[in-house]
Amino acid sequence: SYELTQSPSLSVSPGQTARITCSGGNLGNKYVCWYQQKPGQSPVVVIYHDTQRPSGIPERFSGSSSGNTATLTISGTQAMDEADYYCQAWDSSSASVFGGGTKLTVL
Amino acid sequence: QVNLVQSGPEVKRPGASVKVSCRASGYSFPIFGLNWVRQAPGQGLEWMGWISGYNGNTNYAQKFQGRVTMTTDTSTSTAYMELRSLTSDDTAVYYCSRTKYYESSGYFDYWGQGTLVTVSS
């Protein structure tokens, strides 16, 4: 079965740039989405179709993809961005797959 | 506005079944598909499957095939997810989420509030 791999955790200082990566075989031929989940809340999409930002999501969130790796970049990270982040893609059988998640700590 | 409202928490014995509902409002139910995603305590998100709001077609994750059934009631814009033969490993928060189609792909643009299912003897 298809797998997406994320680093379990990342720590950044306020104002720094956070880069969260997601890797998977042939990922460059798939579209990746990113979800933010804060404790006790439902996930929220912050990036879809590799680079698209939904309305209401701050401009400091951006996405990119190259080769087998997709990256979620948070520029000027704020304390409110502390959360778990999950990448997601669809495999060849139209099944959705989530990465294991990255816990972003802002300290 | 789009809203997905799920049924309340459940406590089940091992071996039992659970049926969780997800009532949609604020959009045309047949146009979008709905997914079920679960999250065990302290763990990540796990996709369980998808159901079409138009014709009830389904696509289940291989892990759950034979043990899950997803259905819809278009008259009430409600989706259901039934999971059978429960074990303690099925203890999780179960979410429904809508698929927003964009070009040749899709993403989950709205989520329900989650339903905690606890399996315990």
Descriptive report:
The complex is a heterodimer of chains A (about 110) and B (about 120). Chain A is built from no helices and ten strands. In chain A, the strands form two sheets. In chain A, strands 2, 4, 5, 8, 9 and 10 form a six-stranded mixed sheet that branches. In chain A, strands 1-3-7-6 form a four-stranded antiparallel sheet, with no helix packed on it. Chain A is globular and about 40 Å long. The termini of chain A are far apart. In chain B, a hairpin with a 2-residue loop joins strand 9 and strand 10. Chain B is globular, with a radius of gyration of 14 Å. Chain B starts with a strand and ends with a strand. The model of chain B has no long low-confidence stretch (mean pLDDT about 95). Classes of the chains: A mainly beta (about 110), B mainly beta (about 120). At the A-B interface, strand 4, strand 8 and strand 9 of A face strand 5, strand 9 and strand 10 of B.
Secondary-structure map with pairings?
The complex is a heterodimer of chains A (107) and B (121).
Chain A: E1 5-6, E2 9-12, E3 18-23, E4 33-37, E5 44-47, E6 61-66, E7 69-74, E8 83-90, E9 96-98, E10 102-106
Parallel strand pairs in A: 2-10
Antiparallel strand pairs in A: 1-3, 3-7, 4-5, 4-8, 6-7, 8-9, 8-10
Chain B: E1 3-6, E2 10-12, E3 18-25, E4 33-39, E5 45-52, E6 58-60, E7 68-73, E8 78-83, E9 92-102, E10 105-111, E11 115-119
Parallel strand pairs in B: 2-11
Antiparallel strand pairs in B: 1-3, 3-8, 4-5, 4-9, 5-6, 7-8, 9-10, 9-11
